[in-house]
Write a structure and sequence with these properties.
The protein is an alpha/beta fold. It is built from ten helices and seven strands. The protein has a single domain (87-324), classed as Rossmann fold (3-Layer(aba) Sandwich), CATH 3.40.50.720. The chain has a seven-stranded parallel beta sheet with strand order 3-2-1-4-5-6-7, with helices on both faces. Helix 2 runs parallel beside helix 3. The radius of gyration is 18 Å and the shape is globular.
């Protein structure tokens, strides 16, 4: 069966909308110019990570990790699993690539079966599945659009049917497209951002809650843009700020049920999301504004999700927004 035959009408329409908004932004960017030149990247991890400058190349939305150069580092070869999620069942949205893929791999390494939800990037999703299965765990691929509550309900039911339960929900799927001014953001653009980034989280949480038990965890992907704002990501920043507030409010609401709710707020991370959005000069110098003067690789962010998902690591932590930003201030 051809991969395009797997697309739902909603997923195909979402991808079409993303490309349309990207093309409109590219046309505006062609009339503008700018640049930056910063270096001296900091290496503080187990292995050397890529540094700016990166190839000034745009990816067509929704963005394929297989087309990203250099390829993101997500396997975390120096990370040794120790059963922190042994026997758990997890859903990770937007797990075909980027942070979601890295999280799915480490969850599997820690003993969890993983349902990978994604829009329509079938090749990337298959690569994630191979990595999860290489860790010895089961992987379920579920394509569709988190803007659609019916899809979210069906995805949760499919996961529970396959794995017998649901212990961890990671909300990570997102849409991002920059705009140099608020006047450049059309109603269509604004609606797509809000419905993907905020409605999608709401739909997934509502669908998952009946299946979560005491000791379960919800981990949301926030962002430094939700803490500091970002002048050319007005709508995206607004959704991430809302996600942080939702995380804190829901943590208090669900505490009596023994369900923990936390968020990770990454800074710039080398994933398809940004080269499928940023102006070319900013792609080239992506992440150079952080204290470490480079973006994170997905494997540098994913352990934070393991920490917040695992009841043996964070049983007394709920309602936090954990910054993983390569410094103490926003890079915007």
């Amino acid at each position: 069966m051809a991969s395009k035959d797997l697309d739902s009408p909603a997923a195909a329409e979402a991808a079409r909308l993303q490309r349309k908004i990207q093309e409109e932004t590219d046309a505006r960017d062609a009339m503008r110019s700018g640049g930056s030149d910063e270096g001296g990247a900091v290496q503080a991890g187990a292995r050397k990570q890529p540094e700016p400058p990166f190839p000034a190349k745009r990816l067509q939305k929704p963005g394929l990790e297989s087309q990203l150069d250099p390829a993101p580092q997500f396997l975390a070869p120096d990370y040794k699993g120790s059963g922190k999620l042994e026997g758990k069942a997890a859903i990770v949205t937007g797990a075909d690539s980027g942070i979601g893929r890295a999280v799915a791999v480490l969850f599997a390494r820690e003993g969890a079966d993983v349902a990978v939800l994604y829009l329509n990037e079938h090749g990337d999703a298959e690569a994630t599945k191979r990595c999860v299965e290489k860790e010895g765990r089961r992987c379920l691929l579920i394509p569709g659009d988190v803007r659609d509550p019916a899809f979210c309900n069906a995805a949760v039911q499919q996961t529970v049917s396959a794995f017998g339960k649901l212990d961890v929900l990671v909300n990570n799927a997102a849409f991002q497209e920059h705009a140099m001014s608020l006047e450049d953001i059309t109603d269509e653009h604004f609606d797509l951002t809000i419905r993907t980034n905020l409605y999608g989280y709401f739909h997934m949480i509502r669908a998952a809650l009946p299946h979560l038990q005491p000791g379960s965890a919800i981990v949301n992907s926030g962002s430094e843009t939700g803490l500091f704002g970002q002048p050319i990501l007005l709508d995206y920043s607004a959704t991430k700020g809302a996600i942080h507030a939702l995380t804190k409010a829901l943590a208090t609401n669900l505490a009596p049920r023994g369900i923990r709710v936390n968020a990770v707020a990454p800074g710039p991370v080398w994933t398809p999301l940004n080269p499928a959005d940023q102006p070319l000069d900013q792609v080239e110098q992506f992440g150079s504004g952080t204290d470490m003067k480079r973006p994170a690789q997905p494997e540098e962010v994913s352990p934070a999700y393991v920490f917040l998902a695992s009841p043996v690591c964070s049983s007394y932590i709920t309602g936090v927004v954990l910054p993983v930003m390569g410094g103490v201030t926003g890079s915007a």
